[in-house]
Amino acid sequence: MKALHIAASGMMAQELNVELISNNIANMRTTGFKRQRADFQDLLYQDLRRVGTSTSESGNILPTGVQIGSGVRTAATPRIMSQGTLSSTEKETDVAVRGEGFFRVLMPDGRTAYSRDGSFELDAKGTLVTADGWTVEPAITVPSNSTGLTINAQGVVQATVGNASSPTTLGQIQLARFINKSGLEPIGNNLFLETASSGAPQVASPGDEGYGTLLQNQLEQGNVNSVSEISDLIAAQRAYEMNSRVIRAADEMMSASVTPK
């Protein structure tokens, strides 16, 4: 009975849906996290009577056919790259992007990763790094005898070095954009990698046309809406339950057909 396999595909689809929702909820407080959703597609159909076929020698055409579907499959799990809520941290090395763009991070293997997580630190050499100690590109080093570190909206990093009477420019943070940012590959640690689907990064300074600006002493929270996630969870649970009832009904029908009276 095809209903068993069709309902089973529905249960597996909703199980994956629940897993995505649970990951979204788990990362509600993850800096720069971008939530995922599940997109589904119907499977192939079996034609018992193909629509548009001739029904007589006089050329009559069948207006509607008879088709039986095969169930559902997961087509994609895209990330929603909308802006997350900004929260104040009062930490001078915390930076948030308001608008488009990703920070560039140099990984230990030499590859460049991209992130919306601006919770930066200074290492032993005064270099601006991520929480894992990976360098933010382009590298910016803050002298040990400097005070009053500032990062303006255009990403320019300044500090007063020694007994200087005016701030010294130490560098400028740059942002990268992608034609298809949902095509980036997530690798954990709040990082993404370029892929053939995302396209090549387009690097520019914050505030340039099409690029966001930076906010010092701020961090971008995950773009997860708890109310909508709980609502989606309930809907997924009910869909899973209905598919399980179809399996139970199909099993009872099969049992009735094979049980001798």
UniProtKB/TrEMBL annotation:
Record-annotated Flagellar basal body rod protein N-terminal domain positions:
5-34
Question: Which superkingdom?
Answer: Bacteria
Q: Which GO terms describe its biological process?
A: bacterial-type flagellum-dependent swarming motility
Give start and end of each Flagellar hook protein FlgE/F/G-like D1 domain: 96-159
Tell me which UniProt keywords the record has, alphabetically.
Bacterial flagellum, Cell projection, Cilium, Flagellum
Where is this chain's protein located in or outside the cell? Bacterial flagellum basal body
Domain called Flagellar basal-body/hook protein C-terminal: residue spans = 216-256
From which residue to which does any coiled coil extend? Answer: none
What cellular-component terms does GO give this entry?
Answer: bacterial-type flagellum basal body, distal rod
Question: What does the subunit comment say?
Answer: The basal body constitutes a major portion of the flagellar organelle and consists of four rings (L,P,S, and M) mounted on a central rod. The rod consists of about 26 subunits of FlgG in the distal portion, and FlgB, FlgC and FlgF are thought to build up the proximal portion of the rod with about 6 subunits each.
Protein name in the entry: Flagellar basal-body rod protein FlgG
Q: Which organism is it from?
A: Siculibacillus lacustris
Q: What is the lineage of its organism?
A: Bacteria, Pseudomonadati, Pseudomonadota, Alphaproteobacteria, Hyphomicrobiales
